[in-house]
Amino acid sequence: MEIRPTTDEDLDVFVDTLHAAFGRFPETPTEGGGGVWWSALEMDRNLLAMTADGRPVGTAGAYSFELTLPGEILAPAAGVSAVGVLPSHRRQGVLSSMMRHQLAELRARGEFLSVLLASESPIYGRFGYGPATYTQRLTVPRHQAAFAVPRARGTAGAPTSGSDTGSVELLRRAECGGILEEVYDRYRRAQPGALSRPHRWWALGAGQPPVSPAPRYVAVHRDADGVPDGYASYSIGESDTLTVDETIATDDAVSTALARFVLGHDLVTQVVFKHVPPEDPLRRQLVDFRAGQVNDDTDWLWVRLLNVPRALTARGWFMDGELVLDVDDPFLGEHGRYLLTIRDSKADCVLTDRAPDLSLDVRDLGSIYLGGTAPSTLVRAGHVRAHRPGAAALADALFRAERPPHCLHWF
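Given the sequence above, the corresponding structure tokens read:
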């Protein structure tokens, strides 16, 4: 079997092989080749697995993204996607060969972070990826959508939150592509765990709504000066269910205003928010806490560190301290013990022979990297070993982010 890079001439073969791996048929592109997810493929970053007689049996791709790290730091990250093996060639080492080849290529490019969305959660842990952000689907019956009066009050006796001096304008998706792109870019630069959406994704409509040109209504929030600072993309389907693809807001007041807008929609039986951070305050803003029903609580972005010292020194930190991490990477057959020293929000990470505070798999380091998974949780789960009392608590404090990481982008 041969693993080879692709060129633009391989696009049809790549797409057909991937769809066959998942038992699906390709959609029909819109005029100009856009409107389908694969129009944003970077063919110089993709791989084909070929049999000895030249038949394609597997695919693996990667996109060029920026990942927002704790501290509002933007770092390049390879977005692994379009991974599939034909049913006739599964469990024969094809996937492992492609993953090993791809990781070597990413390192050769100088990349130190790789991310993906896992179609099946048991698959990618063995290649060193760990779940790092989480998301929920929240359903609110329309007749239980009343908001409570905020109880916190300021020094002047006025509520400290929930007030909004902006406005909401209703547009169609085709009317506001530029607004969506601009607002999302502002949002993702400040949100740990968020990924960039390159301009070509928006221009080609490559992805899921609202990136794709699928018909949607968009509630656009503008601040007091008329500048767009949030949006909610939605559609109404069967059983009069209003489904929100995503809500993007630059602060909590904007998020609340958009939630009020969609929850106040007439002739709707329920509102489904497809992507809500686990710590989102919406349920607690309702008069009836139980009205916010969590239908799906799942992982989203998985992270893999390709270079431990570079990755740990790239992100921001919020307290001083030292930690010795003994990191095992069984898939690549690597092992390293690192002294992580944090002073004044900056980290230094070097090899050391000091006794470890924590021993962990590289997949577990990926899970805690963005601050969305507490190291102590993985200690309690039996995946991370704490070698001294207090080590897990110290790691929890060091790895926390300024706010929980969240990712909305589908790729």
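Residues 2-111 form a domain with the Aminopeptidase fold (CATH 3.40.630.30). Try to locate this feature in the token string yourself.
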